[in-house]
Fold these 2 entries.
Entry 1:
Amino acid sequence: MCDFTAVLAQIKPKLGCVADNLALIEERISQAVADKADLIVFPELALTGYFLKDLVPEVARRLDSPEVLRLVELSRQISIVIGLVEVTDDYRFYNSSLYLEDGAIRHLHRKVYLPTYGLFDEQRYLARGERFRAFDTRFGRVGMLVCEDMWHLSASYILAMDGASTLICLSSSPGRGTEGETLGSAGAWQQLTSTTAMFLNCRVLYCNRVGFEDGVNFWGGSEYVAPSGVSLARGRLLEEDMVAVTLDEGALRRERIFSPMLRDENLFVTMQELRRIERERGL
């Protein structure tokens, strides 16, 4: 593991316009490379837009599509995290995130928890992912989540138990409710990222999009939260932004020594009790 610079590319994708979105993504990658960043993170479904509905089959891309291969090639210059609709050989569609590095797809995560409440109807159009796995990168061990995944505490816990010291969450969170002068959804996410980082001694990179779709406004506010739970950098609300942050390995080391929650976690007890619950509930 080492210190590295990450950029949270808080962009405004166009709904269903893959070519336009790819051009915007390439522009932001070029800017991050010029600024000598090591990693760039884009939001959930950055390549396609979010409220796709019946557009899903039209905008979905295979992992060997020209658009994905272009991004893979660009990852020779900078590591890239990107969200898209993925289609498989059996014509299943997934809300997927890719980690690209050194000209290769290093990891694929398919969103496990597809919301179907309020504004959301993802399960109608998309298949669910079935796993959470940490993976090795140039910057240490990483875990990826897509938006709703992070609201299920077991997801981040599994990734931390699998050795992830950095959690990357791609999001398309609409702005909802107000609390004083801030958005309720922004406040809720800020509490979640802070709590997750603090209790798992992990760094959290959260990248949320902006812009309007179907009358819904996405709020942005992308941020880097240190393992202490303190937000060290945060993007603007409701505007495009490029949030550059340096992830300090020393800060991670100090926090894990000072507050060794992860060291003291008893995975045996956790597994034992989960198996008991499974048996007793007949799951």
Entry 2:
Amino acid sequence: MIRAIAYFLMLASAIAVAGWFALRPGVVTLEWLGWHIEAPIGLVVAAALLAFVLLLVLWRSWRWLFGAPRRVRDWQKNRRREAGHAELTRGMIAVAAGDATTARLAAERARGLAAPEDGSLSLLLSAQAAQLLGDEAEAARCFTAMLARPDTEFVGLRGLLAQAQRAGERDKALGLARRAYALKPDTPWLLGSMFDLSVRAGDWRAAEDAVTRGERRRLLAPAQAHRQSALLAHLQATEAERAGDAQGALRHARKAHRAWPDSAPLAAHLAKLLIADGSRREAVKTIETTWPLMPSAELAALYLDARHEPDPLKAFGRMERLVKLAPEHLESRLALARAAMAAKLWGTARGQLVAATLPENDPPARAWRLLAELEQLEHRDEGAARRALDRAATARSDEAWTCRACNARTAEWSPICGSCDAFDSLDWASQTPVSALAAPSAPLTLRDELPPI
């Protein structure tokens, strides 16, 4: 439709021009080199237009003939590229199907057919085929070749990083992760790998940077990011403490407690540092902040230490103030019972222990052992003490720090499991039943497993 309108407009323009010259007749006279030519103006214009058209046809014909070799080369190049793309597609399908032999053959054909700018795809296909065949050396060669090109460097680093992690080469993996991190720091899987490798290498600042970026990219919920930051701050505090930097240790410990106030181990560590520094009031406040959220026997002992009260009766009064923050909790009852026993307030101690050992509370063995100790101290009743110890033998086991990744148990809490190096995997729990060992829960960590290449 548009082309017909264009032809119509051209014809109308030609008719209009011819009519304009017909209404204005005239003669053009040309004298040159002895020649004398006279012609009507319309004929001169028509001859000029015809000459222009002929020159245009000659110019286009010459350009077509001159560009013929290049068009032939482009045609051949496009055929090779299409054939290369077909081989790449066949190879990718073979990789997805797990057909390593077909994938390798397709990669070899694609390498010979594909254009130079498509060489990275054939290298990637070759690496995938080599991995399917178990040829890690050939895969590493392909990934290393990718490092030479800016557009494939990141993919090559990813492949080499995955190989290093599978081989347990942590130092090499960390170096590759740092190089990839410099190229694309906000990549989700790389943030997880960077965090995990930095923690294992003791590079707390790099790990903290990964957590910050993960929270900003919404890969971590704010609560989880604060928890991870708190643990990293605790590790820095521990490192500073070992180096003799008391103020640095306090600074990091305060940061850890602010980020995760409901962690008894973090509160206990900060309280110890504050007591050693002479800041007993702050230590008391720290424990009172955490007690309603996570009471523990360690916090109770530190609370009395921070109060520095040698009189058992006054110490009992101090403990009463603390346990009122969580009066029904098992740890509150046991802590108040211990303080009452130290003050020889037998009735109060027995009342707390009777409440703590009610069946609905599912008391641990330590509650019954404390009751046995009370029976010996108050009445020297060996029979009653023996009965309490018998109940302790059949009660649920005492809580301990248990790793969710490997089920190892330890009395000392740490952000990193001493058995399997899992980060943030220790829970305060009773002995895990044997039936649950077959399916341990995964540790809470930023780490996002590196996807297969």
